[in-house]
């Protein structure tokens, strides 16, 4: 996705805008990317998110946050939504929300969990499940800006079928110089993967992360328990707390 309106804006006036679905991409059996046309979109930084608000015919409203999945293309933004079983909003966005339908969008939101393309420190990204979405936005922004900053992504998923952006990650790990991608499987690993499925641990972070003396910027995103575990591991390995940025998506599930 090309960057045309990434800009440098962190704080935009938080007004609700009406967006419409222009494209839907299936990422995994439970996750889809929704491309929305949002007239007047002010631009955003990698790592920021939007609030999405739905209104039922009887006036009932529900709002949830979704990370921006990459740089904007003009007035178009991309969100990647993972279906949460029994959820109120995510199943609607995946199964019911149709092309041309309106949805209210507010943002961009967030001034801490962001990566700026002018940063020079090495970057460690650690994502669990849909927590990869804002991290992918950083990988895409890096590419769009022609940045050579070394990036490492550790991405924890349940099974090979759950890898969001699987093809693009494979391609970028091959073509984007200085980007390394390591997958950790918690339930079922593909043939040829070293080791048994496991939850991310010290060995993964040690092997696929950066030594703390390089003072990398670390971004950790996913379910609450995942984020807390990884942040504790990083701090235990000597990374400075202020360089370990976290974003929690919800319960551990
Ligand atoms: C800053 C931010 C950015 C986010 N970005 C994304 C994103 O890019 N993609 C994305 O898919 N989601 C993202 N989320 C999560 C999203 O906001 C919703 O929480 C999620 O879609 C579930 O909403 P729901 O209405 O379907 O479920 P709800 O009706 O809110 O919840 C249904 C049940 O599922 C549990 N639950 C809620 N959220 C989760 C979760 N994340 N994991 C497991 N169980 C859960 C609830 O406790 C409840 O039991 C983000 C959250 C935050 C705070």
UniProtKB/TrEMBL annotation:
Q: Which residues form the FAD-binding FR-type domain?
A: 14-115
Pfam families in the cross-refs = FAD_binding_6, NAD_binding_1
> So which domain of life are we looking at?
Bacteria
Q: Which UniProt keywords apply?
A: 2Fe-2S, Iron, Iron-sulfur, Metal-binding
What cofactor is this protein dependent on?
FAD
**Gene3D superfamilies named among the record's database cross-references:** Nucleotide-binding domain of ferredoxin-NADP reductase (FNR) module, Translation factors
Q: Which PANTHER family match?
A: NADH OXIDOREDUCTASE HCR (PTHR47354), PROTEIN RFBI (PTHR47354:SF5)
Q: What is the recorded name of this protein? A: Ferredoxin reductase
Organism this protein belongs to: Micromonospora coerulea
């Amino acid at each position: 996705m090309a960057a045309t309106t990434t800009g440098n804006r962190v704080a935009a006036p938080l007004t609700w805008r009406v967006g419409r679905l222009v494209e839907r991409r299936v990422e995994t059996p439970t996750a889809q990317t929704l491309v929305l046309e949002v007239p007047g979109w002010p631009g955003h930084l990698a790592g920021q998110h939007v609030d999405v608000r739905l209104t039922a015919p009887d006036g009932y409203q529900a709002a949830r946050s979704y990370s921006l999945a990459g740089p904007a293309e003009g007035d178009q933004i991309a969100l990647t939504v993972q279906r949460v079983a029994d959820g109120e909003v995510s199943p609607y966005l995946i199964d019911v929300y149709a092309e041309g339908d309106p949805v209210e969008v507010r943002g961009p939101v967030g001034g801490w969990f962001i990566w700026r393309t002018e940063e020079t420190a090495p970057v460690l990204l650690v994502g669990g499940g849909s927590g990869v979405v804002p991290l992918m936005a950083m990988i895409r922004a890096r590419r769009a800006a022609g940045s050579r900053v070394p990036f490492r992504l550790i991405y924890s998923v349940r099974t090979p079928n759950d890898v969001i952006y699987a093809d693009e990650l494979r391609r970028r790990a091959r073509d984007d110089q200085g980007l390394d991608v390591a997958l950790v499987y918690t339930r079922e690993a593909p043939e040829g993967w070293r080791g048994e499925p496991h939850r991310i641990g010290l060995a993964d972070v040690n092997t696929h992360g950066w030594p703390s003396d390089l003072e990398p910027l670390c971004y950790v995103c996913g379910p609450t328990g995942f984020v807390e575990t990884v942040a504790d591991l990083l701090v235990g390995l000597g990374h400075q707390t202020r360089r370990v940025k976290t974003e929690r998506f919800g319960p551990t599930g």
